[in-house]
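Sample A.
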Amino acid sequence: MPIEIKRFEVGPVITNCYIVYNERSSECIIIDPGAEPEKILGFISDNKLNPKYIINTHGHPDHIGANKEIKKTYPGVPICVHRDDAMLLTEKQAVLTVFFGMKYGSPPADRLLEEGDELEITDLKLRVIHTPGHTPGGISLLDDKFIFTGDLIFYDSVGRSDLPGGNAEELIDSIKKKILVLDGKITIYPGHGIHTTIEREHAENPFL
């Protein structure tokens, strides 16, 4: 049974939340539950899925905003984030709260991720790639055929580096040295907007 990917657009800045699941085993991974927990939880319930991980590609409010409600429903499911962004889950940051127009806050991380860590469900193994630049602890999650890049790279664009903790040089380095070197046929599932491919962004992205 192939892996399925369900995308939701949630919250005031239209963040992509992904549920990655295997219908055969019903196991799933929730990536960047940024807002509208009822939408995310409804899909999980309707499809009788069994969440195994909540993964935040980084700690900005629009990517962690539904952590609390999902954790409340599934208290045994670990919240996973790179150790360099762990403090962003619980730290009160007025500037970012106003910027994103969202209430801030999440339970603390249960698992701190590092480069090379692997997160598995049946027939799927996602490898953690540390891709700083948008935030110090930004990560991408790589499978053989697709990659979730958070706010690192988008269709015809790249992530912001002007928010607290951002670094423009690191961001471009992360893209060029850790993403563009991968198989060009790999599909990119970004934190905002439509999916694309590594091959396309390598050839067409005006920021690279």
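Sample B, a different protein:
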Amino acid sequence: MQIAVTFRHMDTSEPVRNYVEEKLVRVNKYIEEPIDAQVVLTVEKKIRHNAEITLVAKGITIKASAEVTDDMYAAIDAVVDKLDRQLKRYKEKLKRHTTRKGKGRDLTKTIFEAASVDEELEEPRVIRSHSFSAKPMSVDEAVMQMDLMDKEFLVFTDDSSEEVSVIYRRKDGNYGLIVPKS
């Protein structure tokens, strides 16, 4: 686990840094390696202690923050507890989404070279070709898998209709679904 600790409006403290690293070890049981953790510790007006953690691991990003008026150690404990709850909820969500039994399909993705305006090629040239299996899953599971893999789109077999479908991330942050017409 890579941990970067940033101190704002306070002196750099090795005991606090060690305490953060010691507390973040317990999130390893929820997420597979590699994990990058960005920790920002801030003191405002000498009484408000803020701790903010951003975890990035295998396609997921989880953020948590906590504010405590007593001391920095309490703020660190609060934010790690909050992060722990978020990761538990995420892990349970993954367990509930079981793979569906159904007919998967083997597909091939082909990337063609775009002909420039000056060149007048009659046939597009294949740059790369990739074969993969479109696994049967529900739309909710497809959205979750796409987020986990940090992709812009995902081709999958809809477990209810057994048709190949495409889910994609729109520019406004929502999702679009392309379903073949019957």
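Observation for Sample B: The first helix runs from residue 14 to 24.
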